[in-house]
């Protein structure tokens, strides 16, 4: 009897969860085996990194935002977003859905004082809580003093971030290079 009650409760919970899912939305399953979906408006991300980590591949990603913007077009995403102080940012794609190079990837980079299409140098790049960087399966390789870093944005929701010597924090807790490093590029394109 107790097993039936547990099974019934679990089934009711599953039914409640699936009832909240709409079958009329325009999402597509673009995720391989992760079970996640991406709306028609999404980012296509290509990563090519070598060094301490080698990862090359392409994945779709949801629209990236730092302030909860619900983008409705590539042009809107390509125009950037403003924070509460009115400073304009462009948030690079953050969470590719599929593993790349066999690893879960997180990209943490934004252009501060974004003004549309153009090239942005290292000094204008930032992230929330740390310098710009890329995490592979939880290990963050981020901008250091010896890093070269540049983003070219097309103003239509696409662009390329090229970098050399993103590295982990030194064993003594200092920042500034040393240790393992990665170099490469992230290229993205907005798709409607």
Write up what this structure looks like.
This protein is mainly beta and 192 residues long. The protein has helices at 2-19, 74-78, and strands spanning 42-51, 55-61, 81-82, 88-91, 105-108, 110-112, 118-121, 125-126, 133-136, 139-142, 148-153, 159-167, 181-191. The chain has a six-stranded antiparallel beta sheet. A four-stranded antiparallel beta sheet has the order 3-4-6-8, with no helix packed on it. Keywords: Signal.
Topology at a glance:
Blueprint: H1 2-19, E1 42-51, E2 55-61, H2 74-78, E3 81-82, E4 88-91, E5 105-108, E6 110-112, E7 118-121, E8 125-126, E9 133-136, E10 139-142, E11 148-153, E12 159-167, E13 181-191
Antiparallel strand pairs: 1-2, 1-13, 3-4, 4-6, 5-9, 6-8, 7-11, 9-10, 11-12, 12-13
Gist of the model:
This protein has helices at 2-19, 74-78, and strands at residues 42-51, 55-61, 81-82, 88-91, 105-108, 110-112, 118-121, 125-126, 133-136, 139-142, 148-153, 159-167, 181-191. The protein has 192 residues and is mainly β.
């Amino acid at each position: 009897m107790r097993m039936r009650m547990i099974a019934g409760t679990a089934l009711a919970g599953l039914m409640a969860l699936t009832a909240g899912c709409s079958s009329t939305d325009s999402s597509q399953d673009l995720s391989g085996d992760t079970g996640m979906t991406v709306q028609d408006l999404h980012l296509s991300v290509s990563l090519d990194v070598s060094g301490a980590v080698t990862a090359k591949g392409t994945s779709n990603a949801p629209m990236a935002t730092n302030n909860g913007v619900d983008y409705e077009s590539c042009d809107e995403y390509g125009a950037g977003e403003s924070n509460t102080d009115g400073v304009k940012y462009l948030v690079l794609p953050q969470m590719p859905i599929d593993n790349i190079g066999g690893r879960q990837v997180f990209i943490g980079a934004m252009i501060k004082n974004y003004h549309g299409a153009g090239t942005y140098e290292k000094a204008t790049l930032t992230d929330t809580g740390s310098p710009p960087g890329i995490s592979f399966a939880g290990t963050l390789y981020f901008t250091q003093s010896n890093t070269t870093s540049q983003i070219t944005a097309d103003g239509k929701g696409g662009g390329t971030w090229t970098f050399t010597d993103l590295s982990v924090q030194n064993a003594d807790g200092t920042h500034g290079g040393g240790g393992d490093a990665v170099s490469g590029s992230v290229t993205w394109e907005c798709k409607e």
